[in-house]
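Quick sanity check, SIMPL domain-containing protein:
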Amino acid sequence: MKRIILSLAIIVFALGSFAQNIQGGIITVEGKSSVKLAPEDISFTVNFSVKSENYKECAEMSVEKMEEIKKLFIQNGIDEELIKTNSFSIREVQKYDPQLRQSVFEGYEANIPVTIRTKKDYEKNDKIFELIKDNLQSNFNLNFALSEEQMETVKEKLIQLAVEDAKQKATVIAKSAEVKLGKIKSIQYGEPRMIGPYNTNMELMRAESMPAMSAAKADITSVLSPDEIEMRTNIVIAWEI
């Protein structure tokens, strides 16, 4: 008799737990969003290097070269605040000696990229390109990127679209399952992320190719058409049912 009563108690407890799960059920849905933008920022980066057998002399030569490049742009009307130097490195250079059959010290090399970051509609972009190709015998690259203003604006839009997507999915699921959506129980948000290459339409040019380009027309920014950059995000929302 005790065994029968105990079995009945277990069944009643199990039914009670099942009823609680139904009453406290949730629908969890992931909303996704995607927005494509045409990049507004342009970066011209000159990559130069200097070498010397003496470490101090190498450092001094690199600073002089950097000032020389900045002066070139400033004297030609390029806004000084647009010119940036974000890194500087000096490394020891070794060369293999076939007679000694080992690497021997050759000197030091300093590498410094000087970047001019402008807007696509900056009226002096072609002038910057012209100054680089006519005066600087060094590697350089040009790339496009989203501006800070674009990133902030698209962030809000992505969230709105992701929430709408989650709501639409949850509504369809609830209708199909013949349940009613209740209050939102939780929200998890993912930061926007960039899809595809970070630098679109990169144009890399070597120093040896520059003399042949000196007579070319410098309308580079009107020729290049950067691809749109896609931004995505996701948001997970749980509703009570």
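Posting the structure with no commentary besides this: The mean pLDDT is 80.
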